[in-house]
């Protein structure tokens, strides 16, 4: 799997990207032999269509990729990744795209080479691309590598990706980039005042832990907190089998912040990065926490447990409290937190919450530029009463079923301090194969945040 561009001086086949409305004009400038060939094949520049034009000597003179219409392109992204999958092995050079579109399509092209082949050989595109003029090739390669890390971590089953293995992935990343790492494991979580991380993970034979990675010694402080529930049975509120099958992805928040951290470190952004990952397995045993239990969080708030399957917000609460003690310039949490977010926004759109209008504006603009869709949902303060059970300060699973994504985000806000904060409620999974996005784990929101950071943190 090669997620890099071909050398700039490589011999390349020209790949002309043509909109439907521009096909006739393009053909008017071509030799009659080319025009006749294209007409004979029935190529109409529809989105995703490809035609190869022979050179008369058994080779390929050029290739055409249909770019459809603005309306058809609006229904997806990374369109040329679909073309890349149809092209024969070789090296290609894009023609016909402006630098902004070329950057998006180039990333999609690189990601078309991704495959999860840890357990079985898989097919992927073999057509390589020369970085188009005007795009930042090194940046795109760094983003592709970070996204591949996120996908790999999510795709690995819980048998091979428990808390210890997730710690190992963090340690490998830290070593590669010269970051420091500190890990608090098992009973030491109680000694260091991380009671809810310990409680959620104590029923498993695989010890819970809090992973703390730091990189950079100057610039604004960015803290990323990722939910690392390596498998979620639901605890004593046991999930049905139909809901447990994808729970290897419940550490998708951790995988996403680690992929984003790799991008930041690889690009040498001038900031101080901290990554916190509470890594646990929510299992069932005699020591499992129970519905009705009341826990005391790191910051002193008490939490009534009304559903042990709402465990992600518990481990995030301790990690957020810890992060807030340093008052970073920006704190972001990412988690596969609620089914309600999927009901609200579906699997492809990442809802996020923030009280910071400038941050929201920067995120929305960046998301549109880099084809990483996000959507702001409200921290609706009147719903605070829904997470206050009376017997304790907070309820981890309010009854009623309304506004589940919002009440979960409000719960987290209680632990995030008073600084700039955003929370992403991601899905982390692509159920239907799409160009550059095969079925399986996928990053959400990370590229939008990466693109927004220079504006948000004044880098």
Automatic annotation (TrEMBL):
PROSITE patterns linked to this entry: CYTOSOL_AP
Pfam families, sorted: Peptidase_M17, Peptidase_M17_N_1
GO molecular function, a single term: manganese ion binding
Keyword Cell inner membrane: no
Keywords: Aminopeptidase, Hydrolase, Manganese, Protease
GO cellular component: cytoplasm
Stretches that traverse the bilayer: none
Cytoplasm recorded as keyword: no
InterPro entries recorded: Leucine_aapep/pepB (IPR011356), Macro_dom-like (IPR043472), Peptidase_M17_C (IPR000819), Peptidase_M17_N_1 (IPR048816)
GO annotation, biological process: proteolysis
CDD domains: Peptidase_M17
Every Cytosol aminopeptidase domain range: 307-314
Similarity comment text for this entry: Belongs to the peptidase M17 family.
Protein name (Swiss-Prot/TrEMBL): Leucyl aminopeptidase
Source organism (scientific name): Roseovarius litoreus
Top-level taxonomy: Bacteria, Pseudomonadati, Pseudomonadota, Alphaproteobacteria, Rhodobacterales
């Amino acid at each position: 799997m090669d997620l890099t561009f071909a050398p700039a001086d490589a011999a390349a086949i020209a790949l002309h990207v043509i909109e439907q409305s521009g096909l006739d004009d393009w053909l008017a400038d071509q030799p009659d032999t080319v025009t006749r060939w294209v007409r004979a094949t029935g190529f109409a520049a529809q989105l995703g269509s490809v035609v190869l034009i022979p050179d008369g000597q058994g080779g390929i003179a050029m290739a055409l990729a249909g770019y459809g219409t603005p309306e058809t392109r609006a229904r997806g992204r990374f369109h040329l990744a679909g073309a890349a999958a149809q092209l024969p092995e070789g090296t290609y050079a894009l023609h016909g795209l402006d630098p902004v579109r070329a950057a998006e399509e180039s990333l999609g092209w690189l990601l078309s080479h991704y495959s999860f082949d840890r357990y079985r050989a898989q097919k992927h595109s073999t057509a390589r691309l020369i970085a188009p003029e005007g795009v930042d090739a090194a940046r795109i390669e760094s983003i592709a590598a970070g996204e591949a890390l996120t996908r790999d971590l999510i795709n690995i089953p819980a048998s091979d990706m428990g808390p210890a293995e997730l710690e190992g992935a963090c340690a490998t990343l830290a070593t590669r980039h010269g970051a420091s790492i500190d890990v608090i494991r098992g009973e030491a979580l109680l000694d260091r005042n991380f009671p809810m991380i310990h409680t959620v993970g104590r029923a498993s034979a695989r010890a819970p832990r809090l992973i703390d990675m730091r990189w950079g010694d100057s610039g604004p402080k960015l803290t990323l907190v990722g939910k690392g529930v390596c498998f979620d049975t639901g605890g004593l509120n046991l999930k049905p089998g139909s809901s447990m099958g994808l729970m290897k992805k419940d550490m998708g928040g951790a995988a996403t912040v680690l992929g984003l951290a790799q991008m930041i470190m690889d690009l040498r952004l001038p900031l101080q990065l901290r990554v916190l990952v509470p890594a646990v397995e929510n299992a069932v045993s005699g020591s499992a926490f129970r519905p009705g239990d009341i826990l005391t969080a790191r910051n002193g708030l008490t939490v009534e447990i009304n559903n042990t399957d709402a465990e992600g917000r518990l481990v995030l609460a301790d990690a957020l409290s810890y992060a807030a003690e340093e008052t970073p310039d920006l704190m972001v949490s990412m988690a596969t937190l609620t089914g309600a977010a999927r009901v609200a926004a579906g699997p492809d759109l990442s809802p996020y919450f923030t009280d910071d209008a400038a941050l929201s504006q920067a995120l929305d603009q960046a998301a549109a530029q880099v084809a990483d869709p996000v959507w702001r949902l409200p921290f609706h303060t009147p719903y605070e009463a829904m997470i206050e059970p009376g017997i304790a300060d907070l309820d981890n699973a309010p009854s009623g079923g309304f506004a589940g994504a919002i009440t979960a985000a409000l719960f987290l806000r209680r632990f995030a301090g008073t600084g700039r904060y955003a929370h992403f409620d991601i899905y982390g999974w692509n159920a239907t194969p799409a160009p550059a996005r095969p079925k399986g784990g996928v990053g959400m929101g990370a590229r939008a945040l990466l693109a927004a950071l220079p504006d948000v943190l004044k880098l």
